[in-house]
């Protein structure tokens, strides 16, 4: 009998260890992630926003992992989701879903593992795609601000959490749209974007953010959707667009380099996403790709002229071998490679240290 009890308590203890292991990864001091950005990270906010026409809440989005559409703009998980898994915490709910659950009474508080505010189509410039009803990062920030102010999020959690900021691709893509009438030079446009990012950083720091992760833009000039732009080549990446992206990324890294001095007690890292993706593109077989140019799901030139799921689309049966799932967005396979490189990679992938190291650092 005593033996049995002992075994039972041992079982309970080992179960506790297992469940702790599942809750927060060994060596991690990060209980939550707050996610800001665009379609690369949107986990369904636009889906819950009935005013918004930038959507991926229909098949075959989500088909290779969730097996149903979730509002994510890929066939599976996003980079934010995959890093959350590395941290050992459940995936962050879209803010709009958490809000709806509080409004209809199915939940009485906001989740403790963080919240995803990202909105597909949005940019760092407030005007970007405003006609589509997207939520720009300035409004995403206000949503977070209100939760902090109303004590819906524990300040202790905020201080330990990671803050993901991933935005800017839509601003730059739209600069080349035939409907955009440039009032700024490419350089001034990029500077105006960086001003917004800088102001965003100051605001989240004031609200308590201490572990700040800025993701560089990928090579936006290589997305299949460039087939929609009159000036873009289809046999190679759009150099002019990539040049703007690289300028923006350089400014972004400077902002990250300044975090320690400007914001006492805060840590900042810069994810070197552009160069990392170009390395995948240059060595497709090594990374499991047979197609790094076209969309697995879509229609027209490069599969980039029609959104996946829209009239006339076709879908490949080997999405893991495609760099792009649809006209703008990486496949889950690409997202997995990127998140691995950010979690455990060296200086060529993320600087000044990787997310695994950041997660294990304690905040004074
Ligand atoms: C976390 O950091 C401590 C030292 O601060 C180190 O001993 C430990 O191995 C680290 N754990 C992981 C998982 O990196
Ligand atoms: C949708 O638009 C209406 C009318 O403009 C506005 O009152 C409402 O707040 C908007 N809803 C969301 C979720 O943005
Ligand atoms: C409450 O809202 C959530 C999110 O929109 C939804 O999934 C759920 O079905 C709603 N529940 C009720 C009882 O209305
Ligand atoms: C890659 O996919 C695109 C879109 O499906 C297609 O047009 C293109 O021919 C493919 N390229 C290769 C090398 O298979
Ligand atoms: C996958 O698609 C290719 C053409 O895109 C086709 O030749 C092949 O038979 C398909 N394989 C399966 C298992 O459906
Ligand atoms: C950094 O990692 C990359 C990719 O894993 C590798 O090719 C490179 O040699 C490493 N560089 C250093 C300085 O360790």
Automatic annotation (TrEMBL):
Signal sequence, start to end: 1-27
Alphabetical list of SUPFAM superfamilies matching this protein: SGNH hydrolase (SSF52266)
Keyword terms of this UniProt record: Hydrolase, Lipid degradation, Lipid metabolism, Signal
GO molecular function: lipase activity
A biological-process GO annotation: lipid catabolic process
InterPro entries: GDSL, GDSL_Est/Lipase, Lipase_GDSL_AS, SGNH_hydro_sf, SGNH_plant_lipase-like
Highest rank taxon of the organism: Eukaryota
Membership in a protein family: Belongs to the 'GDSL' lipolytic enzyme family.
PANTHER family: GDSL ESTERASE_LIPASE 6, GDSL LIPASE/ACYLHYDROLASE FAMILY PROTEIN (AFU_ORTHOLOGUE AFUA_4G14700)
Name of this chain's protein: GDSL esterase/lipase 6-like
Record organism: Dorcoceras hygrometricum
């Amino acid at each position: 009998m005593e033996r049995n009890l002992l075994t039972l308590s041992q079982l309970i203890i080992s179960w506790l260890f297992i469940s702790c292991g599942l809750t927060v990864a060994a060596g991690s001091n990060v209980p939550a992630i707050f996610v800001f950005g665009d379609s690369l990270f949107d986990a369904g906010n636009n889906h819950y926003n009935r005013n918004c026409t930038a959507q991926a809440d229909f098949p075959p989005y989500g088909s290779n992992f969730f097996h149903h559409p979730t509002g994510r703009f890929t066939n599976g998980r996003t980079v934010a989701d995959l890093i959350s898994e590395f941290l050992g915490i459940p995936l962050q709910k879209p803010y709009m879903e958490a809000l709806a659950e509080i409004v209809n009474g199915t939940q009485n508080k906001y989740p403790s593992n963080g919240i995803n505010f990202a909105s597909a189509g949005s940019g760092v410039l407030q005007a970007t795609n405003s006609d589509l009803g997207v939520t720009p990062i300035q409004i995403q920030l206000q949503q977070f601000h209100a939760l902090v102010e109303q004590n819906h999020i524990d300040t202790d959690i905020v201080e330990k959490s990671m803050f993901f900021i991933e935005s800017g691709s839509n601003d730059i893509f739209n600069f080349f749209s035939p409907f955009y009438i440039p009032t700024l030079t490419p350089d001034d446009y990029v500077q105006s974007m960086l001003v917004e990012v800088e102001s965003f950083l100051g605001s989240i720091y004031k609200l308590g953010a201490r572990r700040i992760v800025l993701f560089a833009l990928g090579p936006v000039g290589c997305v299949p959707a460039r087939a929609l732009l009159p000036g873009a080549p289809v046999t190679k990446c759009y150099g002019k667009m990539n040049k703007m992206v690289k300028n923006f990324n350089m400014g972004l890294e400077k902002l990250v380099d300044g975090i320690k001095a400007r914001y006492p007690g805060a840590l900042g890292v810069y994810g070197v996403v552009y160069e990392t993706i170009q390395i995948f593109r240059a060595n497709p077989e090594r990374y499991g790709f047979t197609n790094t140019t076209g969309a697995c799901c879509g229609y027209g030139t490069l599969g980039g002229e029609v959104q996946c799921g829209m009239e006339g689309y076709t879908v490949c049966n080997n999405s893991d071998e495609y760099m792009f799932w649809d006209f703008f967005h990486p496949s889950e396979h690409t997202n997995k490679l990127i998140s691995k490189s950010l979690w455990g990679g060296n200086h060529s992938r993320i600087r000044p240290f990787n997310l695994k190291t950041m997660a294990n650092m304690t905040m004074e």
